[in-house]
From TrEMBL:
GO terms for molecular function: methylglyoxal synthase activity. It comes from Massilia eurypsychrophila. Its EC number is 4.2.3.3. Keywords: Lyase. This is Methylglyoxal synthase. One of its GO terms (biological process) is methylglyoxal biosynthetic process.
Length: 128
């Protein structure tokens, strides 16, 4: 089955998310992608990726992705959080990261970890 990956980035991390996705573009094209609203729009518009877009984070997008994850629909979350900027929906962000821990779903919150997770998923999918 195609890896199912959630991609989420706070505003100051969106450029990094686009660069990361560009680095793994061929692999990501073969994945089922879901994203919060604005992140998904950038990935679709700038890289041509097919992404299911949920609501924007502050409007419940993190919660929607968390709910999908709880239903077993997501294999990994790349969540480039901005640790320097307070977010109005901090409880939603914490809920999503907590859901990853409760359900043992890989959750990368910085570029270095995201690269490790994507590289591993790519290797696993190549060997299937
Ligand atoms: O706020 C976010 C994650 O908490 C991201 O939402 P957007 O992708 O809509 O900016």
């Amino acid at each position: 089955m195609k890896p199912r990956i959630a991609l989420i980035a706070h505003d100051k991390k969106k450029d990094e998310m686009v660069m990361l996705a560009a680095e793994y573009l061929d692999f990501l094209r073969g994945c089922t992608l879901v994203a919060t609203g604005t992140t998904g729009a950038r990935l679709a518009n700038e890289l041509g990726l097919t992404v299911e877009r949920k609501h924007s984070g502050p409007f419940g997008g993190d919660l929607q992705i968390g709910a999908a994850l709880v239903e077993g629909q997501i294999d990994a979350v790349i969540f480039l959080r901005d640790p320097m900027t307070p977010q109005p929906h901090e409880p939603d962000i914490n809920a999503l990261v907590r859901a990853c821990d409760v359900h043992n779903v890989a959750c990368a919150t910085n570029i270095s970890t995201a690269q490790l997770v994507l590289t591993q998923l790519k290797l696993v999918s190549q060997n299937q």
